[in-house]
Amino acid sequence: MNTSYGAECDWQNHKLLNIDRLPGRAYIKRWKDLKSALCNDESKQLGFRKLNGSWKFLYLAAPELSPLGFETPDFDDSTWENIEVPSHWQLKGYGKPHYTDVYYPFPVRPPFVPRANPTGIYRHTFFLDDLSRRQILRFHGVDSAFHVWINGKLAGFSKGSRLPAEFDIASLVRTGKNTIVVRVYQWSDGSYLEDQDMWWLSGIFRDVEIYEVPLVSLFDVSHKISFDDRYIDAFLKIELQIENKSEEAREVECVISIYDENDFCIEKKRTNTEVAASMIANEEITLEMKNPKKWSAEIPNLYTLAIELSSKNLILEVASLQIGFRAIEICQNNFLVNGRAIKLKGVNRHDFQPDSGRYVAKQTMLQDVLLMKQHNINAVRTSHYPNHPYFLELCDYYGLYVIDETDLETHGFEWIDESTRLANDPEWQPAFVDRIERLILRDRNHPSVIMWSLANESAMGENLKAMARRARCLDSSRLIHYEGDAQCEVTDVYSTMYTRMPRLLEIAKTEGKPHILCEYAHAMGNGPGGLADFQAIIEAYPRLQGAFVWEWIDHGIRRKDDRGQEWFEYGGGFGDVPNNGNFCIDGLVFPDRKPSPGLVEYKKAIEPIHTSLIDAEKLIINIDNRYDFLDLGHIELRWRIHTNGVIVAEGEMHAPAIPARQSENVRIPFDLESSRKNHINTTAEKAKDLGNIGDYDELLFMGRYGNSVFLEIDYVLAENLLWAKAGHIIATAQFEISSALASKKQRSTKKPTQSPVLFTMNYGRSGKKITILGEDSVYEFDSLRGSLESWTYKQHKLIEKGPSLSFWRAPIDNDMHILSTWCEKYFLHLFQEDAREFDLRKENGEIVAGSMIWAAPPSQGWGFECRARYIINDDRRWRLELFGKPSGNSAAFPEMIPRIGIKLRLPLGFDVIRWRGYGPGEAYCDSRSAQRIDVWKASIKQLHTPYIRPQENGNRYGTDAIFITDRNGFGLAIISEKPIEFSYHDYDVDALENARYDHEIVHTPYCVLNLDFAQNGIGSNSCGQDQLPPYRLKPREFDLNLEFCALDLGTSFLENAKPIGEY
């Protein structure tokens, strides 16, 4: 041992893996008797105690500054601070968090780390009153290396931050008060193997425990399951290691029992073993199980394996495990679970909580699992290290497949062009192998674990091959995964990350090992887009067996200023350099675990029930069951037919018990024929009664969806399940059935009756200003801009600044790789308008103002030729006809542009929005499948999505009617002949660009309404696929035909609109 600083000190000696650390083994729960084992109450474990809580703590700039005698029991620590264990010291005010994706935060000179190596010394006391049993000390996670002393004597040393370390302290403890001292080093040679994409955080961050074992005890247990050819009956082979620490040989009776979920014993076997003194005996027992219930993520049947050890008719201990009967194997181009090819619909999950970093409480782990299940996720990759064992217990119990990943990443060597340096260095091979060995020995009893992942982004070399050999030796019942093995030399699956669609299709159409995307759909900021498209490809090709979104949660650390303002911090916010900025803000849930729009979209993309409309007249649908094992007997089908927010008919029925991976045609039990004559007229009359809008009583029947009728279907749980209550929505579908409902009397296309024009024209202007007066309206035009400047109705401003062309959006994270091209080559953020030929005239009883506009960025030879016409045909109503087309050298056009549309300014106070179109949530052209067409309502605040780094947000797609009012129903309506996109905020685009955090957005004294012909897709090009071709907005012809109507409707208007909080 060398605990002083020097070339060979323990924490920078890659050849030294541990001192006196016990060999890896299963996480075994031990009990005094069988009854306690079956209760599975952690607090009743045999001699089990947690040392979590308040510890004394001393923070040092380097280990060599440790005070003399700090490890002794009588050392005076009264002046030290207190710190909670588990925790990270950076989050308790010692040092600072540091975020990097690839970079090592110190010079790369393995195995050496900086001499200025921040160090934390922890001291704690605990009491023992019975030493008849051996005491085992267990650390679940310490970052990055540590020594531990008990009562002044060294108990051991360990590395491997996210792996357990156990020490036998029987010879070091005493009756009564005991002192434990732990010295933790921020950096060690192990840090070179732990360069994962996450915050660098240090300390004792997982549970510290002591448990008791008798002198003769179960050291380790593992089991393997094999099935007959029909996957009905199974053989359960149990391998035991029984340790005898006494000074004489012992005869040990072992009783193996299997209990079902009702604690009924279904199988039992006894065996006797002779265990020599100070030795470990291996025992193998095989049970034949007749048709046990199988485990899968969809049907996670578990059994209790109880192991009773006794000697001389005295029970020594009872150990228990939860096991599941599950097999995974390769067959041709697929991996099979219990004989069936499955599709993994997964996420990558880091341990993270915004207040405590990688210390995640059990309740939060449960919250993660429940959220995943409720959003149709069936698989987790523990990126990029083993999670706490309790998380795997949850995956076993609730049903999630797990790719269990080794705590190993050397990504930073890629930055210095030496990616294989450690992967091929034979001196480092023991350190590589040690990490996967400890992982497998701990987790190999979990049915949820279907693959071992060798590492992440650690290149490929001999050391990875050695890991694979060791993995197969320890556990041949699971598959081996590693994306870095591009040639599949040692892996069972072909794994890629961020694979573009063309390459994915190539893989899908070729023979080879089963393929998964271990990372894709980088969920950074506003995104990911294209989820439905990727999932359609995965479903269509058998070789493609699933994908894992990167990643589950934003790694934002909660901060608060002196005024109590909270925000979530990312790289650079603590003065940490170098850093990778907000690249850690890339999750499907926000740091506080609120679902993002991306998670809502992912739930829809991977939903296990897919619906197609077969016959709109007869309301026949096809239901495709995309579960791998479940039939649909647990599902209730709820349907409704609606138009303009009014439900015409609704009902519910039990879904047919369609077997997994099969489909069936089903008829919705509703007679369209008998309802044809009534439903549209009845709905129209109801809409007319909603407000006194004079000539505009048919306002809702204008626009693309004015006469549209929709069939909507929800598939919900018929009964409570472990992870959701009855009524929870599993899948949805919506179809327009307007043509089926059209009777011989054609659908109404009538427009509102026009009122006589009551205008006088007043050219009393100050240069460029033209004012048009009506009975209640005042229209002001700017002849220089060639556009409407403002609109006043009943002496209240409806529009404070009229339409201006808009081709820019606040950059989203997925724009990062095209942003410099947009800004530095094309200057798209600096579009300018030049109005020409403005004229104002009467035409067919209407007042028409028009102009030609050249819109283009500076220093560019291309742009848009636009024609704008304002047609005022009523005191309360006018129409904008806007047409544009790209002009100039087409070879100079950018590949994509952010948006094509207009923006207007409306007064503050117009904060109630109703719209007809996709809702209730945010939607873009490549991320809209989770939204439905209906009539929705929201506040302006609800239309804002608070991304951690501000960016374009809140877009609503496919909208043809927008109603914006104050709380008394006064405001305006915009009706579009074709569906458009809109967003509505109380800030300008530059406020998003200039803010680092959501609370820094500078709000304007007006509201900004964007009405877009189209907006570019969002993709996931922060890391991966850019916008797929159908969603790329290229410079193209466009037209907007918008009807603007003043509203003074009262509070009852559009009472059928659904608040977005309902969905």
Helices and strands in order:
Elements lengths: L17 E2 L9 E3 L2 H6 L9 E2 L2 E8 L20 E5 L12 E3 L18 E10 L5 E6 L2 E2 L1 E6 L2 E7 L5 E4 L7 E10 L12 E3 L2 E2 L3 E6 L2 E12 L6 E11 L5 E10 L5 E11 L3 E11 L13 E9 L2 E10 L4 E4 L2 E4 L2 E2 L2 E5 L13 H13 L4 E3 L7 H10 L2 E5 L6 H4 L13 H15 L5 E5 L8 H13 L4 E3 L12 E4 L3 H8 L6 E6 L10 H10 L3 E6 L7 E4 L5 E4 L27 H9 L3 E7 L4 E6 L9 E9 L2 E9 L8 E5 L4 H4 L3 H10 L21 E8 L11 E8 L1 H4 L18 E3 L6 E5 L3 E6 L4 E7 L2 E4 L1 E6 L9 H10 L6 E12 L2 E11 L6 E12 L2 E11 L11 E9 L4 E8 L12 E8 L16 E10 L4 E16 L3 H6 L11 E10 L22 E11 L9 E2 L4
Parallel strand pairs: 27-28, 27-34, 28-29, 29-30, 30-31, 32-33, 33-34, 56-61
Antiparallel strand pairs: 1-11, 2-23, 3-16, 4-5, 4-7, 6-14, 7-13, 8-12, 8-16, 9-15, 10-11, 10-13, 17-18, 18-21, 19-20, 19-22, 22-23, 24-25, 25-26, 35-36, 37-38, 38-41, 39-40, 39-42, 42-43, 44-45, 45-46, 46-47, 47-48, 49-54, 50-51, 51-52, 52-53, 53-60, 54-59, 55-56, 55-57, 57-58, 58-59, 58-60
Helix pairs in contact: 2-3, 5-6, 8-9
Structural class: mainly beta
Counting structural domains, the number is 4
Helix content: 10-25%
Low-confidence stretches: 679-697, 743-750, 752-758
Query: How much is the radius of gyration in Å?
Result: 33 Å
- Global geometry: globular
What's the story with the biggest beta sheet? 13 strands, mixed
Tell me the β content: 35-45%
Terminal-residue CA separation = 61 Å
- Per CATH, the architecture of the largest domain is Distorted Sandwich
What is the CATH topology descriptor of the largest domain?
A: Beta-galactosidase, Chain A, domain 5
Give the number of helices.
14
Give the CATH level 1 class of the largest domain.
Mainly Beta
Average pLDDT across residues?
94
The number of E-state strands comes to 61
